[in-house]
Specification:
It comes from Forsythia ovata. This is Beta-glucosidase 47. Belongs to the glycosyl hydrolase 1 family. InterPro entries: GH, Glyco_hydro_1. This protein is of the alpha+beta class. It is built from three helices and four strands; from the N terminus they run αααββββ. The strands form two sheets. A two-stranded antiparallel ribbon has the order 1-2. A two-stranded antiparallel ribbon has the order 3-4. Strand 3 and strand 4 form a beta hairpin. The longest helix is centred in the first third of the chain and has 23 residues, at about 5-25.
Length: about 110
């Protein structure tokens, strides 16, 4: 697997896993625990008993697309919003001055 594919996979794992893994498995992903460590909230026995019942439904609303640059193993220029909680990524809505898609005004 190429380094690029590994980085993209890591981002996808962190993005989806940051909220699905705790809900489904009652624990955070190893990658997330390695990055965020003690800043993650703890699960208590009462939380785990609720999770044991499982989910009836899980939905995901997707509103925006971004170009993503991984910043954990490569150099990124610091920008507002790049934090450990975001998995050391930098997101942009354009690349080389070209937007990722048509802009929508609400």
């Amino acid at each position: 697997m190429s380094v690029r594919v590994q980085k993209m996979s890591m981002h996808a794992d962190l993005k989806a896993g940051r909220f699905l893994d705790p809900l489904i498995f009652g624990k955070y992903q190893r990658k997330m625990r390695n990055i965020l460590g003690s800043t993650l909230p703890e699960f208590y026995r009462s939380d785990l008993s609720k999770l044991h019942k499982g989910l009836d439904f899980s939905g995901l609303n997707h509103y925006a697309n971004f170009y993503i640059q991984e910043c954990m193993f490569s150099t990124c220029e610091p920008i507002p919003g790049t934090s450990r909680a975001e998995g050391f990524i930098k997101q942009r809505t354009e690349k080389d001055g070209i937007p990722i898609g048509d802009l929508v005004t609400l």
